[in-house]
Amino acid sequence: MSRQRISEAVKSGRVLVSDGAWGTFLQKKGLKAGECPELWCVERPNDVYDVAKNYVDAGADMIESDSFGGSRFKLEHYGLAARTAEINEAAARMSKKAAGEQAWVIASIGPTGKLLVMEDVTEQELYDAFKEQAVALEKGGADAVCIETMSAIDEAVLAIKAAKENTKLEIICTFSFELTQSGEYRTMMGVSPAAAATACVAAGADIIGTNCGNGIERMIEIVKEMRAACPATPILVHANAGLPKNVNGADVFPETPEDMAGQVAALVQAGANIVGGCCGTTPAHIRAMAKVAHALGK
To answer: What CATH class does 6-296 carry?
Structure first.
């Protein structure tokens, strides 16, 4: 595969496919509640590699990394803050090994759990934490960072700037939205899809989008809002396999691979350039979506 940038591939007319859920996959491999998923990159690297390889084999053009909770703020809950760089570098390395020359690695960076509005962290502390994580992910072989599941613009902007100013990585930033009683989509901090998209592009993101919180059908309206606000910026969607239902104490995601694949064309028509999965999705979902998505590209 050409090592062109993801955004360049999109602008050439390709519809790209990202990967699916990581957390549930790791749980099936034995990850227990309360255990640090990111530590598996060091202690059980073959299992982490296998998750990534399964998605590459399913047809994903890009794969994330087991680094969603890899900031020092998250890792300190496990007494692992001092190992932040080591863990993130290992996470990117495992995904890079699986990707080879076949796929891009879009290394995951999730929220820190700290809120500037509550004054429990400073802007500089957040910036430094994101910088530390992004630099390590680049060292491990990432092609891009996927700053995801964001709800606050200030945190997202600091993450974008930290990665952009300290690495050569391509920058993706996605927010999670919920449907309000008034019929609008907002993050838990009250941010609209249009406001999130505009702020991310202004901060320097190369690709914007939305992940988690919604099944693929609901993502269509969110993408339309983002596309109207930012007509020229590539948009990525990581949709859940529907909204979870509690069955015998366990969350079950109802959408089948065929259900999700059936919405891909409408999602692309709405303005999405990259489609993939979040909670509840599997390699089977990605394989079905890829078959449709790759046929839609030029």
So the answer is: alpha beta
